UniProtKB/TrEMBL annotation:
HAMAP family: ATP_synth_a_bact
Keyword set, alphabetical order: ATP synthesis, Cell membrane, CF(0), Hydrogen ion transport, Ion transport, Membrane, Transmembrane, Transmembrane helix, Transport
Transmembrane stretches, start-end: 32-51, 87-112, 118-137, 184-207, 219-243
Function recorded in the entry: Key component of the proton channel; it plays a direct role in the translocation of protons across the membrane.
Protein name, per record: ATP synthase subunit a
Gene3D superfamilies referenced in this protein's UniProt entry, alphabetically: ATP synthase, F0 complex, subunit A
Family: Belongs to the ATPase A chain family.
Compartments where found: Cell membrane; Membrane
Gene that this polypeptide is encoded by: atpB
InterPro entries per the UniProt record, alphabetical: ATP_synth_F0_asu, ATP_synth_F0_asu_bact/mt, F0_ATP_A_sf
Membrane topology designation: Multi-pass membrane protein
Length: 259
């Protein structure tokens, strides 16, 4: 008979997936499939909402316009100002994609947030990073002009250049990129681990090994899972918002000097 000592908490193996097709390509795993499905869902959502827009929006168009206005007014315009409308297509798509990647983590029988695999937010972060560099070189006087604008403020004392310039270059070309990807990844990774732990506690003590002493622990696990799921919903939305906001900030820093 199993005891409490036989309980094993979920570990990092939650994020290791075998190929979906036996003897197929090693890269074609559940996270890859979910990432593609989410992208198709975002395209279908936007197509259904905006392919034939009505003057008075209803249904999907109405929902999409609420999201569009949120991204425009809360992210694009505060960060990009007059350039906001030009970049709304990209920012709106990023927000929807990251949000969908996050939300699949709480869908029954799917229950895996795509963003909890660092490779997926990293790809988006690399794309935004390269776009920032391209815009900076194009709009700020070439490569040298861009580097000078981001790393050498006009009012900086010459004695501080040796300290400030390397730190600012590291921030602009290393730390900003890595934190852009890691922020959403770390939150989704930790959230998925917590949900998996508390739900496994509930399942083990209520269904796998039901005992008078273990039942209260199982009920507590179920209650915490429900609470954590509601909190995770908020975190999923917040991380999509922050990822898109940082993308807008980086695009803005490429379009115009920060100093």
């Amino acid at each position: 008979m199993m005891t409490i000592d036989d309980f094993r908490a979920p570990g990092p193996d939650l994020f290791i997936w075998p190929p979906i097709i036996r003897d197929g390509p090693l890269w074609f795993t559940k996270p890859v499939l979910l990432a593609v499905v989410c992208a198709v869902l975002v395209i279908a959502f936007c197509w259904a909402a905006f392919a034939r827009p009505k003057l008075v929006p209803r249904g999907i168009q109405n929902a999409a316009e609420y999201v569009y206005v949120f991204v425009r007014d809360q992210i694009a315009r505060p960060q990009l100002g007059a350039d906001a409308d030009r970049w709304m297509g990209l920012l709106f798509t990023l927000f929807l994609l990251v949000l969908t990647w996050n939300l699949v983590g709480i869908i029954p029988f799917v229950q895996f947030p795509v963003s909890s695999h660092i490779a997926f937010p990293a790809v988006l972060a690399i794309a935004v990073f390269l776009l920032k560099i391209y815009l900076g070189i194009r709009h700020q006087g070439g490569l040298l002009g861009y580097l000078k604008n981001v790393a050498v403020p006009a009012d900086l004392p010459k004695g501080a250049l040796g300290i400030y310039v390397p730190l600012e270059l590291a921030h602009q070309f290393l730390f900003s990129f890595t934190t852009h990807a890691i922020r959403v990844f770390a939150n989704m990774f930790a959230g998925h681990m917590l949900l998996a732990f508390f739900s496994s506690v509930g399942f083990w003590f209520l269904f796998q090994e039901l005992t008078p002493l273990g039942a209260p622990i199982g009920l507590l696990g179920v209650a915490v899972t429900i609470i954590m799921t509601a909190f995770e919903l908020f975190i999923m939305f917040l991380q999509a918002y922050l990822f898109t906001m940082l993308s807008a900030m980086y695009i803005s820093s490429g379009l115009r000097t920060e100093h």
